[in-house]
Write a structure and sequence with these properties.
- By secondary structure, the chain is mainly α.
- The protein has a domain of about 110 residues.
- The protein has a two-stranded antiparallel ribbon.
- The N and C termini lie far apart (about 45 Å).
Length: about 180
């Protein structure tokens, strides 16, 4: 027998075991968290995706600034010629606007400052640090596509964490004697 750990024991091969484990994990989530955090989160994410998809399909606006980019079919970031393609990674391209490129650049390459040139030195390092750490832990490919997918996922997890913490803090300060500390 080898000293190397066998990861096959971590796989769940029976559907009934998987169902019971998932059911027990979800039963531990408080009902208020599901109703007041998860449901609004899912509804707003679906609404954002619908509006973004409709915008990409119905209103292909011309690019008005020279540094515009998109994720092309090869998974890397390329300059946009006319307008952002609605067929090349549309979900990632619609959710990766504004400062996403700067944050991914910081996470991937670190900070760079050149006087007289737009640089990424003005951005706070926590978010890029989280992106870089999780990217390294998950051993994802180096394409910009995977950096952006991870950035979107971390942003959404941070939103859920903030909502959970805010709800708990608000309830604790409003009704301190009626809430258990957990």
């Amino acid at each position: 027998m080898s000293d190397c750990p066998n990861f096959r024991h971590l796989l769940i091969t029976r559907p009934d075991v998987l169902k019971s484990r998932i059911g027990s994990a979800f039963s531990k989530i408080p009902k208020w968290f599901t109703c007041e955090v998860i449901v609004p989160f899912v509804i707003t994410r679906l609404a954002l995706l619908l509006v973004g998809w409709l915008g990409f399909r119905l209103l292909p606006l011309p690019v008005a600034f020279p540094s515009a980019w998109e994720i092309s079919p090869d998974g890397d970031r390329h300059a946009v010629v006319d307008h952002i393609s609605p067929t090349s990674h549309p979900w990632v391209n619609m959710l990766s606007r504004w400062d996403a490129g700067w944050y991914v650049e910081i996470a991937r390459d670190g900070y760079l400052y050149e006087p007289g040139v737009p640089s990424n030195a003005a951005f706070f390092p926590l978010y890029p640090l989280l992106i870089r750490a999780v990217h390294a832990l998950l051993l994802l490919p180096e394409h910009d596509y995977w950096w952006l997918i991870l950035a979107i996922a971390i942003s959404n997890v941070a939103l859920l964490t903030f909502a959970r913490f805010s709800r708990w803090t608000l309830a604790r300060t409003s009704f301190p004697a009626q809430l258990p500390i957990f």
